[in-house]
């Protein structure tokens, strides 16, 4: 497979093919390749940010963060994520909900807690729904199985673009768009071939060393998952098929 590396660097992400990564332990055995999803991004993005602009910087920062959190197996190999890092999903919205209903809200997670959830997509798809109502159940998914599920569903990747940056740094607030084409099955449901989009807002905080110490995401997970189960039910056990390429290495 042709590589998108240019002079040892990837177009949109840092700390991937650099000299400093020669001793990095990769979760799936080797560095991921982004050629396929980069093509999807370039063909489908709605914004073209000038080189050196704040928006372009934030876009590269977020893509690099996603790469490290998904693919680097050891905290000591993180270059852009601080060890004190915390992640939260709809934290403030759930905090309000907790006050009003006494239900358990979504709390911030440390790096160790993210790892215990299985990493990958699992922290992004946390839910308080009863287990029998969960389309996707993070409690039953490992890092491998979650990554396999989404790379099978989106064989061309799940691309990310920054739509707007409202403020920052050091506290950066931005609107994002994630999209991909459902060309593979998901959890027993046939592919629809449709473009699946997810929009949201995020807050990302960097410290004086330009490392990320906090990320907060605000979006409706049901907006994504509901679209993935529109296809008819399949007869196979889980509706997932093996890919002809190393799907755990290739990613969105």
Automatic annotation (TrEMBL):
Which residue stretches, if any, does this entry annotate as coiled coil?
none
Top-level taxon: Eukaryota
Q: Which InterPro entries match?
A: NTF2-like_dom_sf, Pathogen-related_defense
Q: Which SUPFAM superfamilies match?
A: NTF2-like
Q: Which PANTHER family match?
A: PATHOGEN-RELATED PROTEIN, PATHOGENESIS-RELATED FAMILY PROTEIN
Protein name from the UniProt record: NTF2-like domain containing protein
Which organism was this protein described from? Parasponia andersonii
Its taxonomic placement starts with: Eukaryota, Viridiplantae, Streptophyta, Embryophyta, Tracheophyta
């Amino acid at each position: 497979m042709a590589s998108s590396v240019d002079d040892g660097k990837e177009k949109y992400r840092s700390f991937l093919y650099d000299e400093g990564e020669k001793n990095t332990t990769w979760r799936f055995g080797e560095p991921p390749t982004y050629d396929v999803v980069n093509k999807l991004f370039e063909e489908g993005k709605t914004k073209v940010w000038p080189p050196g602009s704040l928006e372009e910087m934030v876009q590269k920062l977020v893509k690099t963060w996603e790469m490290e959190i998904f693919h680097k197996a050891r905290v000591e190999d993180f270059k852009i994520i601080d060890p004190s890092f915390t992640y939260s999903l709809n934290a403030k919205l759930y905090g309000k909900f907790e006050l009003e209903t006494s239900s358990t809200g979504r709390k911030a997670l440390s790096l160790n807690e993210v790892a215990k959830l299985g990493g990958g997509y699992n922290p992004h798809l946390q839910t308080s729904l009863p287990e029998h109502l969960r389309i996707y159940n993070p409690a039953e998914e490992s890092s491998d199985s979650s990554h396999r599920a989404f790379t099978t569903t989106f064989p061309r990747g799940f691309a990310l673009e920054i739509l707007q940056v409202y403020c920052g740094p050091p506290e950066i607030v931005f609107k994002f768009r994630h999209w991909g084409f459902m060309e593979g099955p998901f959890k027993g449901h046939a592919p629809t071939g449709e473009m699946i989009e997810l929009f949201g807002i995020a807050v990302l905080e960097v410290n004086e060393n330009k490392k990320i110490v906090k990320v907060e995401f605000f979006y409706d997970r049901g907006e994504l998952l509901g679209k993935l189960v529109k296809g008819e039910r399949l007869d196979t056990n889980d509706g997932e098929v093996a890919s002809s390429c190393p799907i755990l290495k290739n990613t969105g």
